[in-house]
Design a protein that fits this description.
Blueprint lengths: L4 H14 L6 E6 L5 E4 L14 H9 L3 E7 L10 E8 L1 H8 L3 H5 L6 E2 L1 H11 L2 H10 L4 H4 L6 H14 L3 H11 L9 E2 L1
Antiparallel strand pairs: 1-2, 1-4, 3-4, 5-6
Helix pairs in contact: 1-3, 5-8
């Protein structure tokens, strides 16, 4: 089987979800019609996984990019051949494939990601003080000093950075970095799908 754009997009979606944790298992619960119902019990960002199917997961497993175990279907509206859930784990080969993606391929599934930027700004301003936020921006290579006026209020400065990150498709990167530094906050609740 040959690796296709669809496979690359699926791998990118999984890497987006698990980061670089090859030990993490992801559970996709299936509707009786074979479409994703939830990912690890969450439904807020299903658009990230809307092209997933048990068949696609079997193809990824055949390409040695993931390990996948399907749970057989039971219950109302399900046939024995349907699946209740699929448990997935990325293999190291998936990260090698992802590292060779072109920018266009890697960005392909980022387009539908939407963040509630108003809540994101509120969470950033409440969880980071100005100096910590400036450090975060510098770590991400976002030139804080070049992007925001020094006379602006802190919330206005955060809004300017988020506007820049949105225009350059880096919002989720900022969200991931904030999540790493402040894991107690529910950053993934900001995702809209």
């Amino acid at each position: 089987m040959k690796l296709t754009q669809r496979h690359l997009e699926a791998i990118q979606s999984l890497i987006w979800y698990v980061g670089d944790d090859t030990g993490r298992r992801v559970t996709i619960d299936w509707d009786p019609d074979g479409t994703p119902e939830s990912v690890d019990g969450e439904t807020g960002f299903l658009n990230r996984f809307d092209n997933f199917s048990p068949k696609l997961l079997d193809e990824l497993a055949g390409l040695k990019l993931i390990e996948c175990v399907h749970e057989e279907g039971t219950g109302l509206g399900r046939q024995p051949t349907d699946y209740n859930a699929s448990i997935i784990q990325l293999l190291p080969e998936a990260f090698m494939v992802a590292s060779e993606m072109t920018v266009e391929q890697a960005d392909a599934r980022h387009a539908p990601i939407l963040l509630d930027t108003y809540r994101f700004k509120e969470m950033l301003t409440s969880s980071f003080n100005r100096e910590e936020f400036i450090d975060l921006c510098h770590e991400l290579g976002l030139g804080f000093d070049n992007l925001v006026p020094s006379s602006a209020t802190y919330p206005t400065q955060v809004a300017a950075i988020l506007d820049y990150a949105r225009r350059h498709r880096r919002l989720f990167e900022v969200c991931r970095a904030a999540q790493a530094k402040r894991p107690a906050y529910e950053w993934l609740d900001l995702l809209k799908g």
